[in-house]
Amino acid sequence: MVTARHDTAFTIGPDHPALPGHFPGRPVVPGVVLLDHVAAAACQAFGLGPATGLPRAKFAAPVLPGQRVDVALTRLDAHRIGFACSVEGRVVASGEWRFAA
After folding, report:
1. Quick one: which of 23, 40, 50, 73 has the fewest CB in 10 Å?
2. Which candidate in 16, 22, 37, 79 is catalytic?
3. pTM here?
4. What does the pLDDT average to over 54-64?
5. What is the side-by-side order of every strand in the sheet holding 68-75?
6. Going from the N-terminus, what domains does the chain have, and what CATH number goes with each?
């Protein structure tokens, strides 16, 4: 299989329902929200079934509401997608998703 790559981006607005209480006075985008956007982008880009696992994920820095998150998706094989999320050129999250065929 030829390795395929897809780049995309998203922004979580300050009105996202997951932000209240995460954290009061200094909201941070929850990791699960980032992962949800990454999985949805991978499904759309590569025509995959639902996510079945997250073998690894690393969160290197917080993402604030309103920041643009650039996502690089790399198809590792028929069921695995590697990802790297960056804000202003700095990696904030990376890992690998597993998907159904």
Report:
1. 50
2. 22
3. 0.93
4. 98
5. 4-11, 68-75, 80-87, 90-99, 51-59
6. 4-15+26-99 (3.10.129.10)
